[in-house]
Amino acid sequence: MSESDRDELIDAYFDAMDADDLGIVRPALAEGFVYESLDGDLEGFGGLETYMNELRGLSETVHEVTLRVHGEVASVAEGTVTGESGDGTVEAEFCNVFEFDEDEEGITRLAVYLNDS
């Protein structure tokens, strides 16, 4: 899979987060998808829905990706996310690690790391 094909899958994730519309990313997720965050590991599209509807600490987000690195088995995107929380507007740095299925047609694992200090 080319870097641009991977970028399309990655962009679908960020677009879904910022639009608050998981339908955007659903086609980009492989069977057996795992979402890893500070809230723990969530499995499948249903796990991602649980994160969005029950666990996510920010709304009205805007992700600005400032760096992408593509390796043999994974891609990394880092940048800044701005969004609204109960305490007002929050800005945090993120680093997300994306892994893909063997055919690299879908995201199998997404690990999310935040630095909000």
SSE map:
Elements: H1 3-19, E1 29-37, E2 40-43, H2 44-55, E3 59-70, E4 74-85, E5 88-100, E6 107-115
Parallel strand pairs: 1-6
Antiparallel strand pairs: 1-2, 3-4, 4-5, 5-6
Walkthrough of the structure:
The chain is α+β, with helices and mostly antiparallel strands and 117 residues long. The chain has one domain: Nuclear Transport Factor 2, Chain: A (Roll). 25% of the residues lie in helices and 50% in strands. The chain has 2 helices and 6 strands; from the N terminus they run H-E-E-H-E-E-E-E. It has helices at 3-19, 44-55; strands at residues 29-37, 40-43, 59-70, 74-85, 88-100, 107-115. The protein has a 6-stranded mixed beta sheet with strand order 2-1-6-5-4-3. Strand 5 and strand 6 form a beta hairpin. The longest helix is centred in the first third of the chain and has 17 residues, at 3-19. It is globular, with a radius of gyration of 13 Å. The chain starts with a helix and ends with a strand. The mean pLDDT is 93.
Euclidean distance between termini CA atoms? 36 Å
The strand line-up of the biggest sheet is 2-1-6-5-4-3
Q: Which stretches are poorly predicted, pLDDT < 50 over at least 5 residues?
A: none
Please identify the oligomeric state: single chain
Broad CATH class: Alpha Beta
Shape: globular
Total beta-strand segments: 6
Could you give the order of the helices and strands?
A: HEEHEEEE
Q: State the helix count.
A: 2
* Biggest β-sheet strands, sense, barrel: 6 strands, mixed
Structurally, the number of domains stands at 1
**Second CATH tier, the architecture:** Roll
What percentage of the residues does DSSP assign to strands (E)? Answer: over 45%
Q: Which structural category fits the helices and strands?
A: alpha+beta
User: Mean of residue pLDDT?
Assistant: 93
CATH topology: Nuclear Transport Factor 2, Chain: A
Helix percentage? 10-25%
